[in-house]
Amino acid sequence: MSALPDPGATRAVLIGTSRYDHLEPLPAVSNNLTALAAALAEPSSWGLPPEHCVTLSNPTTAEMTMAAVRAAAEQARDTVLVYFAGHGLVDPEHDLYLAMPQSRQQQVETGLPYRWLRQALLTGRAERCVVILDCCYSGRALGSMGGPADLADQASVEGTFLLAAAAETRPALAPPGEPFTAFTGELLDTLQMGIPHGPELLEFGALYRHMRISLAANGRPAPQARDRNTGAQLALGRNPAYLPATGSAPPADKNHASERSWPSPSGIRTVKGFFKALSDVRVTSGLTHQMVSQRSGGRVSAGTVSRLLNRETLPKTWQTTAAYLSACGVPDTQVAAWQAVWMRLLTETTIEAADRPIVPRPSQKHTTLLERLAGRVSRRNDRS
């Protein structure tokens, strides 16, 4: 079953090298990083807060890069994504290493061995890993980013969906004059335009198949992919081109509503993820805030719907959320599952609040006294 990750329990590290001392520059890589970070923050995608998406542009050392990857792999409980764009190089033993600004051909110590990233992901806490590689493997000139055909096999990680740029030595993978590299540009276009006649969610398996056809049709190298476990079912965003089989009208009754692919509450781990999924319910329903209010029979107003979806803390009572879910058309059995998640999160946040140490605030009397003493010390220092 396809699903979007919980943004509160998900981390991303975007790495890109556009400037090199000994290799051809790849200026489009800088645009790749900026645009992909913005895409991951969109509510229609993962909705990642800025602190959950680290961007490393032209990192100077492998240690700096690995520190960010290890932190993300340790902090993420749902999904961790690692993206690299730049030159990819192959050492004499045919192992992949990612080029840093000072990297040289055939000198793995000047770059970042991919096996280091792989090991960090394997030892992290995240249940799912995504690796996206948009890189050259032979260090050829700008516009020709190629390499050995078995590179995707080298880069695969258990529990991961790996999406890699084409292995063949082909021109126009980083076309001069274009804002993005061909591979990442196609990925960004798909997120923005969607896949016609595609699934409701842009799961990685569907993304790979669409990009492979689209890039090949434009005379550009086709990407590679490797899927371990259920990585292909993880979604990168909603499909803007999706049209329900029954048309654009929202379902009129619960029987038809149960046929929709409702966001599952089973993958929710954080309060942020709860509200992200709750918002996705309305998008799936095809209803506006006003329509949700009308279908609730007046139990929730349009303003209440808006306030509910923009909260940062859990509501203390369940009635409004239940009315919202039912009005959207969510089946009763799933509403019960949502309530169980709400109760779990409410219990967890209550316990966390109780465990926080209470820092006593000074009384107004003590605060005034401290201010007077500080003023006296300041005047004495001025006189001296």
TrEMBL record:
InterPro entries: Caspase-like_dom_sf, Pept_C14_caspase
Region of interest: Disordered: 240-263
SUPFAM superfamilies reported for this sequence: Caspase-like
Domain of life: Bacteria
Residues in Peptidase C14 caspase domain copies: 11-217
Coiled-coil ranges from the UniProt annotation: none
Protein name, UniProt field: Peptidase C14 caspase domain-containing protein
Organism: Streptomyces virginiae
